[in-house]
């Protein structure tokens, strides 16, 4: 165990002192923070709500700008005109007279105002009246008129609103010839917000795997590996290398994830995405560790098959394609789910579940609690086979000299218990 920890410490120190690793982390972190700063500059509405001016005659229109944000419209959801407003997107200011309201609009104290009366509102603005505000006020005015008409007929607007709200449309899929009572709910806003987290997860696993493959290849090419295996068994060397680079990956994940969260905080857009960051962060760590465990030992084997830098592209291409397939599937299949059943099955499979399942956790509103747990168990069940395969390739490939070796050559070789001294000359 002491030898494993020494190897792990060496790998961590060497990798973290690498100028390339330090510069890449700093550049990516600065890009995230720069993006958050740019969002704050160019999307100012994400910070201060627009102020809408009203008079004592039109103050009832305030419910149109608060019902959607608070979820309380006094039992009449149509009061907000059917629009769902972001929290704190608008706030209202009441003025005693229309002259005071016009003065406030003229001096840019409010973005626009609603004067006149409740039955006949007058839209007041400095320049063209905002289109979204016009739509909200128009819908609210129509709701007021409808309320007056229903009341004049002896009806109750609240009963009518409840009746309308309880109406649900059913869909019939002609491909499956089944009637669907409900659709699988997907939060597209959460999808956009979670895309950055998914990218960080992909980069962390991908970069860690590349570090393992490159490190093994460099040690093999420089013949350092022959000295190492004379003192440490290949199995312990592999385990220590994986532990050390996993620690490097965790460090990168913390730095990049922290910079991404910092960018969201700077931009002021973090409140726009309804994501439980606490729960999601815990699951992201689980998928990160599981993804590393799945890919890391195979990347080590791929690095052992290469004899020089140019060979790495050929020996790691399959692993790279698997990772990119999982990442792009998470981007497109989850964001635009046309085949839900296929997505549910594929997200359970090893190699791609570390990308697809967290994306589903971010986006889907109908995923069952047991699905990610089942996916983890399936991956854990296949891990021993992957570890055995990767360790076998690594053990038989690190001491092979000459040109790049192939899988059939690896499995045809006999285990070599220890390295021989390199011949002089």
TrEMBL record:
Keywords: Membrane, Transmembrane, Transmembrane helix
Pfam families noted in UniProt: ABC2_membrane_3
GO CC list: membrane
Membrane topology of this protein: Multi-pass membrane protein
Domain ABC-2 type transporter transmembrane: 20-391
Molecular-function annotations in GO: ABC-type transporter activity
Subcellular location(s) per record: Membrane
Gene: yhaP
Entry keyword annotation includes Transmembrane: yes
Membrane spanning residue stretches: 21-43, 190-217, 238-264, 284-305, 317-336, 373-394
Provenance organism: Mobiluncus mulieris
Superkingdom of the source species: Bacteria
Family matches, as InterPro entries: ABC2_TM
Protein name: ABC-2 family transporter protein
């Amino acid at each position: 165990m002491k030898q494993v920890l020494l190897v792990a410490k060496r790998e961590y120190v060497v990798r973290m002192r690498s100028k390339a690793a330090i510069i890449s982390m700093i550049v990516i972190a600065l890009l995230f923070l720069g993006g958050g700063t740019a969002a704050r500059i160019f999307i100012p509405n994400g910070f201060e709500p627009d102020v809408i001016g009203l008079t004592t005659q039109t103050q009832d229109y305030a419910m149109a700008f608060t019902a959607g944000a608070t979820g309380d419209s006094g039992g009449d959801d149509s009061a907000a005109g059917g629009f769902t407003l972001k929290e704190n997107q608008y706030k209202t200011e009441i003025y005693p007279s229309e002259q005071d309201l016009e003065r406030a609009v003229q001096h840019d104290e409010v973005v626009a105002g609603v004067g006149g009366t409740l039955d006949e509102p007058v839209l007041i603005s400095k320049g063209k009246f905002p289109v979204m505000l016009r739509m909200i006020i128009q819908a609210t005015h129509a709701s007021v008129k409808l309320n007056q008409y229903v009341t004049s007929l002896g009806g109750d607007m609240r009963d009518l609103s409840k009746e309308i709200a309880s109406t649900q449309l059913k869909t019939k899929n002609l491909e499956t010839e089944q009637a669907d009572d409900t659709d699988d709910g997907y939060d597209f806003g959460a999808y956009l917000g979670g895309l950055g987290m998914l990218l960080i997860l992909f980069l962390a696993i991908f970069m860690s795997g590349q570090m393992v493959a490159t490190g093994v290849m460099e040690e093999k090419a420089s013949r350092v590996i022959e000295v190492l295996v004379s003192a440490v068994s290949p199995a312990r060397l592999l385990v220590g290398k994986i532990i050390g680079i996993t620690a490097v990956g965790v460090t990168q994940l913390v730095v990049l994830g922290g910079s991404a969260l910092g960018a969201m905080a700077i931009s002021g857009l973090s409140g726009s995405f309804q994501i439980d960051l606490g729960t999601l962060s815990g699951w992201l760590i689980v998928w990160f560790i599981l993804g590393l465990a799945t890919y890391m030992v195979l990347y080590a084997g791929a690095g052992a098959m290469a004899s020089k830098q140019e060979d790495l592209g050929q020996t790691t291409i399959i692993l790279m394609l698997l990772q990119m397939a999982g990442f792009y599937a998470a981007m497109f299949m989850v964001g635009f789910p046309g085949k839900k059943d296929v997505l549910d099955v594929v997200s359970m499979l090893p190699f791609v579940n570390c990308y697809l399942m967290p994306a589903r956790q971010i986006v889907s509103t109908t995923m069952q609690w047991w699905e990610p747990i089942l996916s983890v168990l399936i991956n854990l069940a296949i891990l021993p086979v992957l570890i055995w395969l990767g360790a076998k390739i690594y053990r038989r490939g690190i001491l092979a000299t000459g040109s790049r070796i192939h899988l059939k050559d690896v499995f045809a070789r006999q285990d070599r218990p220890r390295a021989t001294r390199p011949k002089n000359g």
